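User: C-alpha cells for this one?
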Amino acid sequence: MASTSVTFPSDGQQLAGDLYLPDGLTTPVPAVVMAAGFGGVKEMLMPPYAAALNEAGIAVLAFDYACFGGSEGEPRQHMDLDAQQRSYRHALDYLTDRPDIDTSRLGVFGTSMSGGHALALAASDTRVRSAVVLIPFTGLDTSTLDPGLLDMFEDAARRQAAGELPDMIASTGKPGDIAAMTSDGAWEWMERMTADAPTYRNEVTLASLWNLANYHPADNLGVITCPVHAVLATDDAITPASAARLALTEIERLEIVEIPQTHFELFTDHLQETIDLTSRWFAHDLHTTP
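Assistant:
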C-alpha cells in the first residue's frame, strides 16, 4: 500500500497529510478522514486501518495536527483542541476539491481524543455520511482531579499565552512516572506504535492539559443524523466506557460494540477486530446510494 504526501491549509497553517487511494481507481471513490489521538502523529496506528479501507474501495486522508509531526505550527507539541477539531473540517474541504473523491460519501474516523473530534464534526458538518469512533474522548470529569492540578494547568496556559516558553510534560509514561497517561499499557503501546513514526515526540505542553480539561466534544451529539459506530473498552481507565456510553446515547443511529479490554491494550489484543469492524461499517455506509 502506497500513500502520497499532501498538504492543506487550516487556520493559516499548512498541515501534512498522507493520502491513501485504492488501487485501480477509475471513478470517484468514497473517502474517510482520520488523525491521531492524544499527542500522536499520522504514522501511528492509522496505516493498517487505511489499508483495510483501501481494500474496501475507500480512500483515506490521515493528517498531522498543527504543531505536531510534519505540520506547521508553534509552539511545537501544543494541543489546541478546538483547532484540531477544525482541522478535520479543513481536511474534508481538501477532499471535496479532488475530482477522484466522491464528495457525497465522506466519513470521519477517530480514536480516543480524535474520536471526540470525529463526533463533534459529525454533529456540525452535514457532509459527514458516517462516523466510526474507537474508545472516544467525550469530556474530562474535572471533579475527579486535584484542584491544585487544574490551577497548575491554568497557570501554565496563562504564562504560555503571555509569551513565555511553554512548560512540557511527557505524553505517556510508566506507572508512577509524571506523565499525562501512565495506565492501561500506555508506555508499552507508545514504544510499539512509534517505531515507524520518526516525527513523534513523547511530550506535550502543560497548557495542553488545561485545554483538555475545557474541551467538550460531546455537548451536542443529539443533532447527529448520520450513522455512528463505536467500539468501547469496558476496562478503559482513560476514556471510560461508562462516560462514552452515556454521551453516545443521544445519537439516534448508533451502534456500539464493547470489548473487555483496557484503553491501549485494545489495539494490541484486538487490533484486527477493530480494523475489520471499521472497514465493514464504512463499506456499508459509504457504498450505499446517498
